[in-house]
Here is the input.
Amino acid sequence: MIWNKARECMSRDELAVLQGKRLVELVGYMYHNAGYYKKKMRNLGLEPGDIRGIEDLEKLPFTTREDLIDAYPLGVFAMSNSKIIRYHASDHSTGYAGMETMAGYTQNDIDVWKECMARSVSMAGLGEGDVIQIAYNYGLCTDGISAHYGAEKVGAAVIPAADCRPTALIALMRRMQATGVISTSSYLMHVAQMVEHRGLKNSLQLKAAICGGEPWTENTREKIQDKLGIKAYDIFGLNELTGLGVACECERQRGMHIQEDFFLAEIVNTNTLLVLPGGARGELVFTTLQKEGIPLIRYRTMSITKINYEKCECGRTMARMDRLDYGTDDILQIRGNSVSVSQIEAALSGLPGIEASYIICIRKEHHLDVVDVFMEDFRMNETLMSGCGTDVKRQVADAVRNVIGVEPNVYYAESEKIKAFRGSSNEGSEMYVGRKVSIVDGRKY
Ligand SMILES: [Zn+2]
Here is the structure.
């Protein structure tokens, strides 16, 4: 099912012409409306007339997340506030004071966003006649509303189910004969485990799921697909670019098609920042070709991937990006030592018979880093009830300590409790200084 064949299947030559035209317009727009970017261009001696097509893209300066943080909240806006009809913010919920970014959308920005999401939902084979449950939060971040836009635009019936616990979601899924679900992979994994445990797989009408908003592995995908008897598709978006829908997988599940008529992607070497040839792995960089509220030129995502420009078997010509590798973000600092997330992941995945989601929090207590490991898993609760819980906690603590060299606290917890914990530690004397690490199913993301 291809939502917009004229665009999604256009020839690469036509696409390059369209991208070039939009880039030239964008650069002129940014130069005259976004002061911070005009300054960057002037520092390099660049005038808008120097950019004549996508072949000149490399001349342009990069934009970083720090640029957005420094200009918070409205310094990077290129449109007067009266034209902005929506604000979304990132990171307010995680408590990184001073690390927030603010995005503003005009009506045209929202329309582009809806178009991208409609293409994405269609890629998952969902459309008119389908009943889609949306289990993302509808809030400051963009995931819930992204999914809602897409499902609604393709003509499906939408069930906003942001506040449903897995049991309630499954009950609703069966009663309403839902055919699609859009959520984070970790939440859907819980749902899938519960469906399997209760033997409900054959009572579902579910066909497809779209998961994004957090990293997940191929292994997790296979488990979700197997337990629910569906296909699960990966989707990508960034709050700074637009919500979800910047890229999504088609039925081939071989990389996410980037909506290149709206988002021009490059891969650069993280150290030299030089553009790498097609197929090479490097840092993903995006230019928003049609955004008005906060357009971004050469925005560094700090994430590592590669892009495949070959035509897909589905018929789409839009390039495909691989799952993201969170590159430099993968290293945690604990009591002065650098620990890679993949080391912790490897240790946890080596624990026999334990299927769990882990959230690792690092906070300061008397100026020392303290590590808390929260475990969410329904099987684990059964183990706990059968009296083996202490052993499981001990095994997890030992596995993590062997990697980080610090004895962690291990808790069983529900998401709400974790949020409450993290919220309170921001306000009290225990300052949350680390970052959340989700290790799902004992494997990396
Ligand atoms: Zn495809």
About this structure: The first strand starts at residue 86 and ends at 90. Residues 250, 252, 257, 312, 314, 316 surround zinc ion (CB under 6 Å).
